[in-house]
Input
Amino acid sequence: MKKDGNSPSFFIVTAQVRALHSGCFDTNRQVNHMLRGLVRLLIAAGTLLALPVCADVFKCVDGDGHVTYTNDKANARGCKLLSSEMPVSSVPGPASSSHKPASAGASPGGFPSVSGDQQKARDSERRRILEAELDAENKSLDEARKALAEGEAVRLGDERNYQKYLERIQGLKDNVALHERNIDALRKELSKLP
Output
């Protein structure tokens, strides 16, 4: 079958294109109608998902007086069912009075105590580490300042736009400021040591 400009399918397609261009089919109105329907569907689905969920909550107290909460009925034997209107507190209560007072030689909270000589050795080791870090930061600061000075003096070929130059220089300035802050923090730590 030979396709020419007089075939019936050609006339149908041409008529549809003419109708589309003339406004017989308002595609914008059809699209808007579909979008409104989709929005309504999404709102309805969101409303259904936002419905409150209820579950039974049980308060369990063991032999040592520790309180736990659960919603598992299998693990809630001998536990009290809480009312859904009653708020559940997750803040621990005050410590029980069953704790024994600490002896005079023990450190607070049951932490192990350290002898004076051992503490001095730890402090001197900490001082040595902090001083080594301070030396390294001073060297890094010198290198960062040198890179900044060299970077300000040279404008790279891809920096035809002045903003690119400013961004590169700002990165170098930020690096210098970072090392300065690190040095200040290390000096502060060193000043706290005995």
In short: DSSP finds four helices and three strands in the chain.
